[in-house]
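Researcher: Quick test of sequence recovery. Tokens follow.
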């Protein structure tokens, strides 16, 4: 428990209003701005990748800026709908079955990365087939920019004081309680008063900055886009390993807790494990296809 003796050693949780600004009755939240920033910055970086023909097989990008401009709405719907439906199915099914209106009560949380990934994958397959674009190249472009959105999303989680970590005594521990958090929860601090890992920042750093850097090097220096499927495979594996690692520091969702009677296995780990195999298969497949083409 938090005491006056160790209070000074704990980093203060910044009291940032989850509402970035208001326009009359409309309140714009940092969480929504994070989605907008992730999608727009990802779109900008994707355009830069497409403009550089040297990065692609036969020195020609398999899609154009116009394709990306059209695709931005597809990916936005895939992320939002998939993320929300995935959260309901993976984390909140029983409460929604008991009260179906809860499905649209987004203020009760939440969004699922794994659901968003499925939604985005469906959107990519449909868009690629409709526009006769090589689907693996579209996978690679989206994978290369995805860590940008992950970074902003985790920063928004931190601002909201949600998805906090497990209790700890590390020097950078935080108590996830502030006037804005209290106001949002009727004067109750949902994370309690114990110092916890700022696991949102861990995820922002690993899933966002580190994974983006790895994929940037693969795409720009190793020319991995010339082997369609490589960048997307590495992204899927990289996210899975990052998520599994951070889950050891992140508090599991209250309605699920730890799985199978353990004190460590979480739903995030279970959903990430198959991604390791899928990502590895994608990388191996890409190498075999490239070898056949050069044989």
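Model:
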């Amino acid at each position: 428990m938090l005491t006056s003796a160790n209070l000074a050693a704990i980093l203060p949780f910044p009291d940032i209003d989850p509402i970035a600004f208001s326009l009359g009755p409309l309140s714009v939240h940092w969480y929504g701005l994070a989605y907008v920033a992730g999608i727009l910055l990802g779109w900008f970086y994707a355009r830069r990748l497409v403009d550089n023909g040297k990065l692609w097989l036969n020195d020609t990008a398999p899609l154009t800026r116009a394709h990306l401009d059209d695709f931005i709405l597809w990916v936005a719907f895939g992320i939002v709908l998939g993320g929300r439906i995935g959260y309901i199915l993976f984390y909140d099914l029983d409460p929604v079955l008991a009260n179906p209106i809860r499905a649209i009560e987004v203020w009760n949380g939440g969004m699922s990365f794994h659901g968003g990934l499925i939604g985005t994958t469906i959107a990519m397959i449909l868009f690629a087939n409709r526009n006769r674009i090589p689907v693996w190249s579209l996978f690679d472009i989206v994978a290369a920019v995805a860590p940008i959105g992950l970074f902003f999303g985790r920063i928004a989680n931190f601002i909201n004081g949600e998805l906090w970590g497990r209790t700890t005594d590390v020097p950078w521990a935080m108590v996830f309680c502030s006037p804005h958090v209290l106001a949002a929860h009727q004067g109750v601090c949902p994370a309690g008063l114990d110092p916890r890992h700022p696991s949102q920042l861990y995820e922002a750093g690993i899933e966002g900055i580190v994974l983006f850097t790895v994929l940037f090097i693969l795409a720009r220096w190793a020319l991995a886009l010339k082997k369609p499927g490589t960048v997307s495979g590495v992204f899927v594996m990289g996210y899975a390993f990052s998520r599994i690692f951070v889950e050891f520091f992140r508090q599991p969702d209250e309605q699920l807790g730890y799985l199978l009677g353990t004190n460590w296995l979480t739903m995030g780990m279970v959903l990430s494990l198959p991604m390791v195999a899928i990502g590895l298969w994608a990388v191996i497949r890409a190498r075999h296809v490239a070898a056949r083409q050069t044989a």
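The radius of gyration is 20 Å.
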